[in-house]
Amino acid sequence: MSENRENSAFYTARPQIAIDGEINSGLGLGLLALEVRETRDGLASCEATFTNWGPIGRSLDFLYFRRDILDFGKNITIRLGELPNDKLVFNGRIMALEAVFPQAGSPALCVLADDR
């Protein structure tokens, strides 16, 4: 397919999520909800919810409770769009991690972050 993406009205864009500068495709695939807010004063905050249940090795387990990927103080960057025209949506530090256990559905982890 030789479609020119620059002139296309629609395209598939999966968010690129980087933790401490390293893109994590699993977070992009597991993103359930994303909300970025900016105040009149220019302060931005981000709330991103990820699925927190999946394969680890040969078993199913929580993906992010070990805090090796998502942890307090780590830098989180979110970009939207296709390369090379992607746009920075948020850049900040993880301030809180909130476990979500819905009555129906898989466990999730909500990441709360503030800009620098």
Question: Would you give an account of this structure?
Answer:
- The structure is a single chain.
- The chain is mainly β and 116 residues long.
- It has one domain: Phage tail proteins - horseshoe like beta roll fold.
- 4% of the residues lie in helices and 50% in strands.
- It has one helix and nine strands; from the N terminus they run ββαβββββββ.
- The strands form two sheets. It has a seven-stranded antiparallel β-sheet with strand order 2-1-7-8-9-4-3. It has a two-stranded antiparallel sheet with strand order 5-6.
- A hairpin with a 2-residue loop joins strand 5 and strand 6.
- The protein is globular and about 40 Å long.
- The mean pLDDT is 90.
Number of domains: 1
Number of distinct helices? 1
**Strands in their spatial order, largest beta sheet:** 2-1-7-8-9-4-3
Largest sheet: 7 strands, antiparallel
Q: Give the SSE order as H and E letters.
A: EEHEEEEEEE
Give the uncertain stretches in residue-range form. Answer: none
Coarse shape: globular
CATH superfamily: Baseplate protein-like domain - beta roll fold
Question: How many beta-strand runs?
Answer: 9
Helix-and-strand structural type: mainly beta
Helix content: under 10%
Rounded to an integer, what's the Rg over CA atoms?
A: 16 Å
- Just give the CATH class: Mainly Beta
Mean pLDDT value: 90
Distance from N terminus to C terminus (CA atoms, Å) equals 41 Å
Give the CATH topology: Phage tail proteins - horseshoe like beta roll fold
Q: What is the CATH-assigned architecture? A: Roll
Residues in β-strands, percent: over 45%
